TrEMBL record:
This is one of the proteins that bind and probably mediate the attachment of the 5S RNA into the large ribosomal subunit, where it forms part of the central protuberance. It holds the Pfam family Ribosomal_L18p. Transmembrane segments: none annotated. Belongs to the universal ribosomal protein uL18 family. One of its GO terms (cellular component) is cytosolic large ribosomal subunit. Part of the 50S ribosomal subunit; part of the 5S rRNA/L5/L18/L25 subcomplex. Contacts the 5S and 23S rRNAs. This is Large ribosomal subunit protein uL18.
Length: 119
Protein backbone atom coordinates (compact mmCIF):
# COMPACT_ATOMS: atom_id res chain seq x y z
CA UNK A 1 0.00 0.00 0.00
CA UNK A 2 2.82 2.38 0.81
CA UNK A 3 4.48 1.93 -2.61
CA UNK A 4 1.46 3.32 -4.42
CA UNK A 5 1.48 6.58 -2.48
CA UNK A 6 5.23 6.95 -2.94
CA UNK A 7 4.89 6.46 -6.69
CA UNK A 8 2.14 9.05 -6.80
CA UNK A 9 4.14 11.65 -4.94
CA UNK A 10 7.18 11.06 -7.15
CA UNK A 11 5.06 11.65 -10.25
CA UNK A 12 3.59 14.78 -8.72
CA UNK A 13 7.12 16.06 -8.04
CA UNK A 14 8.07 15.47 -11.68
CA UNK A 15 4.98 17.38 -12.81
CA UNK A 16 5.78 20.40 -10.62
CA UNK A 17 9.44 20.37 -11.70
CA UNK A 18 8.53 20.34 -15.40
CA UNK A 19 5.76 22.94 -15.09
CA UNK A 20 8.13 25.44 -13.45
CA UNK A 21 10.08 25.61 -16.74
CA UNK A 22 7.36 25.29 -19.38
CA UNK A 23 4.46 27.60 -20.08
CA UNK A 24 2.08 27.48 -23.03
CA UNK A 25 1.05 30.60 -24.94
CA UNK A 26 -1.67 31.21 -27.51
CA UNK A 27 0.89 30.91 -30.35
CA UNK A 28 2.61 27.86 -28.84
CA UNK A 29 0.25 26.10 -26.41
CA UNK A 30 1.10 23.26 -24.05
CA UNK A 31 0.01 19.78 -25.18
CA UNK A 32 -1.01 18.13 -21.92
CA UNK A 33 -1.50 14.34 -21.73
CA UNK A 34 -3.61 12.38 -19.26
CA UNK A 35 -3.35 8.60 -19.27
CA UNK A 36 -5.99 6.49 -17.55
CA UNK A 37 -6.11 2.70 -17.49
CA UNK A 38 -8.60 2.60 -20.38
CA UNK A 39 -8.09 5.78 -22.41
CA UNK A 40 -5.60 8.52 -23.17
CA UNK A 41 -6.63 12.16 -23.34
CA UNK A 42 -4.87 15.22 -24.73
CA UNK A 43 -5.56 18.94 -24.83
CA UNK A 44 -3.85 22.14 -25.90
CA UNK A 45 -3.70 24.74 -23.14
CA UNK A 46 -2.88 28.45 -23.15
CA UNK A 47 -1.37 29.01 -19.69
CA UNK A 48 -1.20 32.79 -20.05
CA UNK A 49 -4.98 33.18 -20.32
CA UNK A 50 -5.72 29.93 -18.46
CA UNK A 51 -7.90 28.49 -21.23
CA UNK A 52 -8.11 25.15 -22.99
CA UNK A 53 -7.81 25.84 -26.72
CA UNK A 54 -8.43 22.35 -28.12
CA UNK A 55 -9.79 19.23 -26.46
CA UNK A 56 -10.38 15.75 -27.90
CA UNK A 57 -12.09 14.10 -24.94
CA UNK A 58 -15.56 13.71 -26.57
CA UNK A 59 -14.09 11.63 -29.43
CA UNK A 60 -11.68 9.52 -27.35
CA UNK A 61 -14.06 6.62 -26.62
CA UNK A 62 -14.92 6.24 -30.31
CA UNK A 63 -11.23 6.20 -31.26
CA UNK A 64 -10.48 3.43 -28.73
CA UNK A 65 -13.20 1.03 -29.95
CA UNK A 66 -11.76 -2.33 -31.07
CA UNK A 67 -8.17 -1.06 -31.14
CA UNK A 68 -5.11 -1.57 -29.04
CA UNK A 69 -4.41 1.27 -26.62
CA UNK A 70 -1.14 2.13 -28.36
CA UNK A 71 -2.80 2.41 -31.78
CA UNK A 72 -5.67 4.45 -30.37
CA UNK A 73 -3.19 6.86 -28.76
CA UNK A 74 -1.69 7.57 -32.18
CA UNK A 75 -5.17 8.29 -33.56
CA UNK A 76 -5.86 10.70 -30.68
CA UNK A 77 -2.63 12.55 -31.53
CA UNK A 78 -3.58 12.80 -35.20
CA UNK A 79 -7.05 14.10 -34.35
CA UNK A 80 -5.60 16.71 -32.01
CA UNK A 81 -3.18 17.86 -34.74
CA UNK A 82 -6.01 18.17 -37.27
CA UNK A 83 -8.05 20.30 -34.86
CA UNK A 84 -4.97 22.43 -34.15
CA UNK A 85 -4.40 22.98 -37.88
CA UNK A 86 -7.98 24.18 -38.28
CA UNK A 87 -7.30 26.82 -35.58
CA UNK A 88 -3.94 27.69 -37.24
CA UNK A 89 -1.79 26.31 -34.42
CA UNK A 90 1.37 24.77 -35.85
CA UNK A 91 3.68 24.34 -32.84
CA UNK A 92 3.20 23.19 -29.26
CA UNK A 93 5.17 22.32 -26.13
CA UNK A 94 4.79 18.66 -25.12
CA UNK A 95 3.87 18.10 -21.46
CA UNK A 96 3.93 14.38 -20.62
CA UNK A 97 2.67 15.04 -17.07
CA UNK A 98 5.26 12.90 -15.31
CA UNK A 99 4.66 9.79 -17.44
CA UNK A 100 7.57 8.06 -19.16
CA UNK A 101 8.01 8.98 -22.82
CA UNK A 102 7.22 5.43 -23.83
CA UNK A 103 4.31 3.42 -25.19
CA UNK A 104 1.03 5.31 -25.37
CA UNK A 105 2.52 8.70 -24.52
CA UNK A 106 5.17 8.36 -27.23
CA UNK A 107 2.61 7.20 -29.79
CA UNK A 108 0.37 10.16 -29.01
CA UNK A 109 3.30 12.52 -29.65
CA UNK A 110 4.20 10.66 -32.85
CA UNK A 111 0.60 10.86 -34.05
CA UNK A 112 0.52 14.60 -33.38
CA UNK A 113 3.73 15.00 -35.39
CA UNK A 114 2.31 12.93 -38.25
CA UNK A 115 -0.77 15.15 -38.21
CA UNK A 116 1.44 18.20 -38.77
CA UNK A 117 1.91 19.57 -35.25
CA UNK A 118 5.48 20.52 -34.43
CA UNK A 119 6.53 19.59 -30.88
Amino acid sequence: MNKVTLRKTKREKRIVKFRSNVQGTSERPRLSVFRSNKYIYAQLIDDVSGKVLIDVSPEVKKLHEKKKKVDAAKEVGKLLAEKAKSKKILTAVFDRRGYKYHGRVKNLADGAREGGLQL
